[in-house]
What does this fold into?
Amino acid sequence: MRIKILPTAERVGAFAARQIHDGVTSGRIRVLGVATGSSPEPVYSALAARGLPRPETLTAFALDEYVGLPASHPQSYRSVIDREVTRPLGLDPSRVHIPDGTAADLELACTQYEGEIAAAGGIDLQLLGIGVDGHLGFNEPTSSLASRTRIKTLTRRTREDNARFFSSLDEVPLHCLTQGLGTILDAREALLVATGETKAPAVAAMVEGPLSAICPASVLQLHPKATVLLDPAAASALRQLDYYEMVEAHLPGWQR
Ligand code: GLP
It folds into this structure.
């Protein structure tokens, strides 16, 4: 893993946005894996401000979706991705894929999702956040490191973390569909962004801890091309600072 520590959360967003923009411009990224959560928001806003070349030709795959929320619900990941990614970046909605959490046959929907990723030629770059318990997508601790897209039960901790987007904890769905850790490993490139002190223990476990299903994000230790972008708060529990890159660079045109 390449670990880069940037001075602020805004620069983390700008750096990731530039990496995605460069990949799309060069043609290296034609299929983009997108993530929800607060951490990637600065990435999307920097990309939207700059504009992507020929965004309508880009295909996108979301990491996960709640089970049972209608697509029209403002907190369904279909709505969130539409609001934060598809519309601001000018993507073609018919090329933006989200697991179908309302399907009558959820297992079939998961198998079909894997098929859609394969039919698109695989994911070129998967953007990721990390949960405070080290989850990737909705792969909670003890998820198989080889898992594929499937139904998962959300932990109470994750439901409490995500309750801020709903009017009460009871409204947060109990289940989700998520790309598996094996699916995420198949992306040609992985780009994880983490900011803020609450993420520091999970980041340290992912980077310096053992490869273990108890910290699902540690699976990125197996990825041939994974980059982790951190602000100083998210990096604050790391101990092996000699191995990480401090990136001071100002990014003209990418920051306010
Ligand atoms: C949710 C998403 C994850 C995301 C995590 C952290 O659980 N399914 O993909 O990484 O939240 O979100 P945040 O960046 O808001 O802390």
